[in-house]
Amino acid sequence: MRSKSVVFQADNPVEQSSYPHSQIRKDMNRFITLNLAALSLACLALHAGQPAPGRLSEHTFKVSDTQTISYLFYLPREFDSSKDTKWPVILFLHGRGESRGPLNIVAKWGPPRMAKRGDNLPYILIAPQCPASNRWTDDSQQNGVIKLLDHLSANFPVDRSRIYLTGLSMGGYGSWKMAAGHPDRFAAVAPICGRGNPDDAAKLVNVPLWVFHGTEDTAVLYRHSAEMVEAIRRAGGKKARFTTLQHVGHNSWSAAYATPELYQWFNKHQLPEAE
Q: Using N-to-C axis directions, what is the helix angle for 139-155 and 170-181, rounded to 10°?
């Protein structure tokens, strides 16, 4: 048993232990190491699983026993859960290439790319990933994404009158179909180099649309967007805007999403009543 001695300094007893200094240092180092490790794990859990304002994060949502959707999620930097502020939403559907790879590949283009590089987006961003074995036009994917949107709208302060839908290439196809299937759900829709069904034109006459397509696109022909816009106008629609990108191939999304006016246009549109 180690002995202790007592030293009196200014009438205040101070205990001095004969516990070896080397052991004290070891114990302190071990304590610091364990706490740093715990802190690191907590940070990783926050970044990987819990939404943090101003940071793109990865999540999954179980639609059913047979379907789970992986998605990227972003909250504006100014988001404060203690306040009553409701936020507009951008729902982004990626292209075919972003189905092949880890979830973070969805941030290769469009609004997720902007969020990943640190842009301060004034929207809640939802960017699901379509499995390589499916397409956004599949009923299972359409229904799953709507259920994901419902889930997040119920758990975050979403302004349901300002939900904006956009997608590129395969996501453009998906945007056309989703807008036709839920014309009263979205305040504005921007399909980029996609293809819709002209038979759906009557469903889209009251939906604000801004369509982008490159004239030299050989993957999804320019005429597919032109035919959709023309069909909507023939049906009486006056809210379809069409931007033709001369001498541009399939990648018309880089120009489209870099257009500040696109987001200004989104912000001008709001459903008359929130659902």
A: 70
- Which residues have C-beta within 8 Å of that of residue 169, sequence separation ≥ 6? 95, 96, 192, 193, 194, 219, 220, 250, 253
Supply 88's token pair: 């507009």
User: What token pair was written down for 230?
Assistant: 């023309």
In this prediction, residues 123-137 reach a mean pLDDT of 98
The helix or strand, by DSSP H or E, that contains position 125, with its residue range, turns out to be strand 124-128
pTM for the model? 0.82
Distance from the Cα of residue 190 to its chain's centroid: 16
Read off the pLDDT of residues 56-108 as tens digits, 9 standing for 90 and up. 999 999 999 999 999 999 999 999 988 999 999 999 999 999 999 999 999 99
Indicate the SS3 state at residue 244.
Answer: strand
The full DSSP string for 21-81 is HHHHHHHHHHHHHHHHHHHHHHHHHHHHHS--TT--EEEEEEEETTEEEEEEEE--TT--T
CB 82 within 8 A of CB 88: no
Place of tokens 């006056």: 238
Quick: pLDDT tens for 17-70. 444 555 545 555 564 444 444 444 334 433 344 689 999 999 999 999 999 999
CA 156 to CA 139: how far, in whole Å? 26
CB 108 within 8 A of CB 96: no
Estimate to the nearest angstrom the gap between the alpha carbon of 145 and the chain centroid.
12
Q: What's the pLDDT score for residue 227?
A: 98
